């Protein structure tokens, strides 16, 4: 259904949409959606590729739900999408304010509680995030409710819970013995200082998942990062993609930054 929506919506808007299934080395089957061109910018082998990673528990239609304004494809990019985590720059989560993820962090050690919590996560996720959202484009709500609760693995929730509780940004913690077997170290640390490519952290003051303190910690570790605070006091987590002012406050800046690196 989600793939059909993306293909149908793009076709109606004269965008060239394609879908692929990719099998990973550990046997996961991932669906990749691609928008290669449009009337304004036809498909071409010389285009710069862009990989969009949507949020948990979201799906690829999130990138087309708001319509074609400021479309990356129209700007001359070859756009692909795959599953990832969050909209905002989330890494460290020790200061997370969102009630749902606080609960995950509390009960992550109990598999039965984690499973029970996971069964209701999709229902409560949007409700919890929308509760303070004054800038959300409410005309999109029927579409969001229909297509954008794509689910998430319980292990993903457990992983987030581990990082909320520990205040770290680690790989999944299997316990000391299994960590040594799997990672060759006691703590499954991710060395973020090895990320030397330019990173731009665009954040908001009231994001309940990407807290300002956690973002500053990430910024101080990354060796080649810049940060930009969105100049809006009530800009929330989901406003990055579904907000009424997302184009003005976020997307225009992103397009400007991307032009610096276009091949």
UniProtKB/TrEMBL annotation:
Residues 10-65 form the Partial AB-hydrolase lipase domain. GO terms for biological process: lipid metabolic process. It comes from the Eukaryota. Signal peptide: none annotated. InterPro entries: AB_hydrolase_fold, AB_hydrolase_lipase. Pfam families: Abhydro_lipase. PANTHER family: LYSOSOMAL ACID LIPASE-RELATED. This is Lipase 3. It comes from Melipona quadrifasciata. The lineage of its organism: Eukaryota, Metazoa, Ecdysozoa, Arthropoda, Hexapoda.
């Amino acid at each position: 259904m989600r793939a059909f929506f993306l293909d149908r919506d793009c076709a109606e808007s004269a965008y060239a949409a394609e879908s692929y299934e990719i099998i990973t080395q550990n046997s996961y089957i991932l669906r990749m959606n691609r928008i290669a061109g449009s009337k304004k910018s036809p498909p071409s082998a010389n285009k710069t590729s862009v990989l969009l990673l949507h949020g948990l528990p979201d799906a690829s239609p999130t990138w087309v739900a708001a319509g074609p304004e400021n479309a990356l494809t129209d700007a001359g990019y070859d756009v692909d999408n795959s599953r990832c985590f969050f909209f905002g720059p989330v890494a460290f989560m020790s200061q997370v304010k969102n009630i749902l993820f606080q609960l995950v962090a509390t009960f992550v050690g109990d598999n039965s509680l984690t499973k029970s919590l996971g069964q209701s996560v999709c229902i409560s996720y949007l409700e919890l995030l929308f509760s303070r959202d004054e800038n959300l484009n409410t005309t999109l709500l029927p579409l969001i409710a229909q297509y954008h609760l794509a689910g998430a693995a319980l292990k993903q929730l457990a992983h987030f819970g581990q990082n909320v509780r520990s205040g770290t940004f680690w790989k999944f913690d299997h316990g000391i013995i299994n960590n040594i077997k799997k990672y060759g170290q006691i703590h499954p640390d991710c060395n973020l200082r090895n990320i030397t490519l330019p990173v731009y952290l665009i954040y908001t003051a009231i994001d309940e998942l990407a807290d300002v303190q956690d973002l500053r910690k990430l910024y101080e570790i990354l060796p080649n990062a810049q940060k930009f605070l969105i100049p809006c006091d009530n800009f929330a987590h989901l406003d990055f993609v579904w907000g009424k002012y997302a184009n003005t406050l976020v997307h225009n800046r992103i397009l400007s930054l991307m032009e610096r690196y276009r091949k």
